[in-house]
Amino acid sequence: MRLLSFFTDRNYRKSLRTSIVAIYLIIVAGAVVRMTGSGMGCPDWPKCFGYWIPPTQQHEIEFSPNTPYKKGMVIIHNEELRVAKANFQTGDSYQEKNWEAYTKHDYNVFNVYHTWTEYINRLIGALGGLVVLIMCVFSLKYARSRPKITILSVVTLLAMLIQAVIGKIVVDTNLSPVLITIHMIVALLIVGLLIYLLHAVQPADLRYSSNTRFVNFSLLLIVLTLIQVAMGTQVRQYIDDQVDLFGYPLQSDWLENGPIIFYIHRSFSILLVGLHAWFIYKGIKTFKHPNWAYVSLAIMMVLTILSGILMNYAEFPFGSQASHLVIASLILGVQFYLWMRLRVAQSATVS
């Protein structure tokens, strides 16, 4: 009976909120990894240089005589990654028969800062998976009364597993840009699922009112923001290509002769600001909605525009790209939540 007392609506909602926070932390961690160029800090997966806790010094991944090695442990030898074939102890010199080449990619650099940045990113991802698993367990409360809740909770957990597999493939392909984008899209889909579930089990808010036109307008904002994010990923890919060619620090003049998608992305942001301004004004003044969501949406719109301006005119200051991406994902989350609450408000207003 005491165990059953934990399976309550309140605890499920708490687990959903915690899961949403955890996924956004994963998005932040992923943005930091990409911002610092640490994606290959751990060249293998799920371990890091063959360790569950990665090395902290270069000599730890170099050949060491008279040292025990376990199967799967990785060293850098002659600028190549070599993997121990089995458990064995080395002699005085390197013996090729004990090792095999790591064939999934040819990245062979050790940088302790990159390694631990990527490792922390993976730890946060694992923590997020655990939180979603707990949420999924709490959802069993609804297995009979509202099976859709339980099913979608399980789908969210499966999406987390798929996300982990995509993360492995991203490493195996030496940071394929297409897969990095897919990785981000899946994270946003998971956030969307969690926000939907939170909305589905939230008590009705009678303060809301709406109409069909306003609901449809809020959906239009989501679609336009998704288009803007998609264009942003293309701009980011161009910047990544420039980094590969010229290295850091980033230079704003790289975009002077950039792809046409950059200019569309920049101009489209002006349209989005105007549409959001009208949406926020209408929601607060006309429909008398609670201010927190609209005010937070306004603040995030200002911040994302500022971060874009900084990137374009201030030589890409440290953290501007990561904050731009994270804020955009937060905007999508708030937009989706508002749209669902507005749909409920519309039904209540009509009835």
From TrEMBL:
GO terms for molecular function: metal ion binding; oxidoreductase activity. Pfam families: COX15-CtaA (PF02628). Keywords: Cell membrane, Disulfide bond, Heme biosynthesis, Iron, Membrane, Metal-binding, Oxidoreductase, Transmembrane, Transmembrane helix. GO terms for biological process: heme A biosynthetic process. It is a multi-pass membrane protein. InterPro entries: COX15/CtaA_fam, COX15/CtaA_HemeA_synthase. GO terms for cellular component: membrane. Pathway: Porphyrin-containing compound metabolism. It is found in: Membrane. The chain crosses the membrane at residues 20-37, 119-138, 150-171, 177-198, 219-239, 259-280, 292-310, 322-340. The keyword Disulfide bond applies. The keyword Iron applies. This is Heme A synthase. It comes from Nonlabens spongiae.
